[in-house]
Amino acid sequence: MKNFVGVFGHVVMDYIVTLRRLPKPNTSIEILDRQRYFGGTGGNLARAAARLGVKASLASFVGDDFPDDYRTALHKDGVDTADLRAVRGANTPTAWVFSDSRGNQMAVIDQGPMKEAARFPVLRHSVRDVELVHLATGRPEYYVRVAELAESLGRTIAFDPSQEIHYVYTPRLFRALLSRSKYFFGNETEIVRAKRLARVTSTEGLLRITTVVVATLGSRGSAVYTREGRIRIPRVPPGRRRDRCRGRIPSRVLRGPRPRVRLAAVWNSRVRGREFRRREKRDAVESSDMVPSSPSRASTCNAVM
Length: 305
Known about the structure:
alpha/beta; four-stranded mixed sheet; 10 helices; 13 strands; globular
């Protein structure tokens, strides 16, 4: 195997705009600040994994306008980009997020070629040459084909649909992917939606379809559900996150004796778009401080300590 994980998900340019207030329809307002980020569930997760010493490939579709500095950042972090495909004539997926001083937000999202992924061929390198296939945001019709290939090759599948579980999944497509996956990830609202799609009444009920469920619980840490029981993972005190996550996960998590927990600890870092965004300005791709910081992600470092 060339890589440990093949990450399928969005690679997005994020523009975060700060306003005094959100404008009313048919009006204009000046901005206070704007920042440009390298984002997307796939891009963030692959970069974070690579920084933690996990060999990762990234499978995604972008436009032929994909920024050179984002590609450079991926390469600098050690991400295998053989399956990062630029679609001729398409725009790179882009999100514009507007926030006011009271914490209100609104967003406009251009999915770019990811919206049409169902008509593209499966990116095989990130399935064939990995041990674990991680399915994040993206079109479920496409991911069913990815999962079928992964299953035929005996690869392990982790399923992490993130916020898209609320609006792109039908019960049939959700069950088709969940049944092929060994690991399922969700926050509290996503778990609620997963139970409805799977037609079960409890989180443990999902274990009739998959093997491990990792639930992030905000300030209460995380929980790993298996058929043998539940493992609670408390939050990590803020002052200890950086050292433990950057220094000890690669050696103790990946090579530890408890495979379910060590894998959960890596992927429960939840390095998905809105949870792992760090300000990386156009001419500053140096990012040594880009490490998990919220309790729902960093707390999982404790799983093997």
